[in-house]
């Protein structure tokens, strides 16, 4: 489901300079007052595709400065998220790496500090036999991400870095609070919302802050900042609850984490230790459906988010509508197959339904209308 990307076109001011050599040409694009080279743009887009295809699909619709900056900020957030998720790392290593990363993404940004951090990462993951995934490859490229952040304007740094820092410390706190387990064990619904805020709500803030900083999104007003941040946060929570509800088996077996709250599981007669025990599959299914039901409380704010960011900009409307419509369809599959969430079974929608949703959005169908269409019934091209 990867998407072909070309270098973004007319949305930026192209600055081409021909090299003195006969066989090369360097293209740069004026983003937010500074030049972004084609190599930098392609690096960010390719890394995003490696670690989050859905988000890459969404941002690939937007193109231009917004795609670049939001993608870069997302990569900066994915680094601490990868450290927090890793089951092979003991708490003290996770805590040390997260605290060091927080220091690195605080002003001033120094690539030399990031290089030292990467050396520390390599030593730890080698000693703990961590499996190298695309996410860990990104962690190993922290210096590149930091260099790209360093080269953004002061205004963009002010917009992005505090949220990256907040997410990192949030991950650190959850790791420390769960220091007797390999993963994260959520106790209450309030705690689940707090965790999802750091994982996804903060990313919603990043989207809003990026758009507010870019001149081309002047339909977003600074006086609406608090409301925009609220709906961006709720949009992120809605999307994260999809992952929480469908990945019960993988979260427990791969990471030792249980994000369905202990209180909700106990209410339905199952303990955390039995969350993937097929004897309790109906109990777990009922608990998951309760979490899915709670996720609907974020949906109106998600609509408002799409209304705000999509006004006067069709590419932004389409881009951020894609994950929302796909989330509604995935919630349908979770509810219809709830007894499967605690088994080694992928719960997902078809590629045909993804293509159908993207095509409909390109044809100017409103996202809430499409959401209602897929809420109970699958669709396809």
**Gyration radius from CA atoms, angstroms:** 21 Å
Strand order of the largest sheet: 1-2-3
Given the helix and strand composition, which structural class is it? mainly alpha
Number of DSSP helical runs: 17
**Residue share in β-strands:** under 5%
State the low-pLDDT regions, or none.
Answer: 1-26
Succession of helices and strands: EEEHHHHHHHHHHHHHHHHH
Count up the domains.
Answer: 2
CATH topology of the largest domain: Farnesyl Diphosphate Synthase
For the record, what CATH class of the largest domain applies? Answer: Mainly Alpha
The biggest sheet amounts to:
3 strands, antiparallel
**Considering DSSP H and I runs of 4 or more, what fraction of the residues is helical?**
55-70%
Termini separation comes to 15 Å
Task: Supply the CATH superfamily name of the largest domain.
Answer: Farnesyl Diphosphate Synthase
CATH architecture of the largest domain: Orthogonal Bundle
Number of strands: 3
Q: Whole-number average pLDDT?
A: 90
Shape: globular
């Amino acid at each position: 489901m990867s998407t072909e990307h070309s270098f973004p076109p007319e949305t930026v001011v192209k600055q081409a300079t021909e090299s003195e050599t006969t066989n090369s040409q360097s293209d740069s694009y004026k983003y937010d007052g500074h030049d972004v080279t084609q190599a930098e743009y392609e690096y960010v887009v390719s890394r995003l595709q490696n670690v989050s295809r859905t988000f890459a699909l969404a941002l690939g619709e937007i193109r231009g400065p917004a795609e670049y900056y939001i993608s870069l900020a997302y990569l900066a957030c994915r680094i601490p998220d990868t450290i927090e998720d890793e089951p092979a790392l003991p708490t003290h290593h996770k805590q040390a790496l997260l605290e060091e990363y927080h220091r690195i993404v605080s002003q001033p940004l120094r690539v030399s500090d990031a290089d030292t951090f990467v050396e520390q990462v390599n030593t730890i993951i080698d000693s703990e036999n961590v499996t190298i995934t695309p996410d860990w490859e990104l962690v190993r490229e922290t210096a590149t991400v930091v260099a790209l952040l360093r080269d953004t304007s002061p205004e963009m740094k002010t917009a992005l870095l505090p949220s990256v820092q907040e997410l990192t410390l949030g991950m650190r706190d959850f790791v420390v609070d769960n220091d007797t387990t390999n993963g994260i064990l959520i106790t209450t619904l309030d705690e689940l919302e707090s965790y999802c805020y750091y994982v996804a709500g903060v990313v919603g803030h990043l989207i809003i802050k990026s758009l507010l900083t870019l001149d081309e999104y002047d339909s977003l007003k600074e006086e609406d900042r608090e409301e925009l941040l609220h709906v961006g946060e709720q949009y992120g929570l809605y999307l994260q609850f999809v992952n929480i509800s469908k990945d019960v088996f993988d979260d427990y077996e791969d990471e030792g984490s249980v994000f369905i709250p202990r209180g909700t599981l106990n209410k339905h007669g199952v303990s955390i230790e039995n969350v993937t025990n097929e004897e309790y599959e109906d109990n777990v299914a009922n608990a998951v459906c309760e979490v899915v039901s709670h996720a609907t409380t974020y949906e109106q704010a998600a609509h408002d988010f799409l209304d705000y960011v999509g006004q006067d900009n069709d590419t932004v409307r389409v881009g951020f509508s894609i994950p929302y419509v796909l989330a509604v369809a995935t919630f349908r599959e979770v509810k219809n197959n709830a007894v499967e969430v605690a088994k080694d079974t992928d719960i997902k929608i078809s590629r045909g339904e993804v293509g159908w949703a993207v095509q409909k959005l390109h044809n100017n169908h409103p996202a809430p209308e499409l959401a209602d269409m897929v809420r109970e019934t699958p669709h396809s091209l």
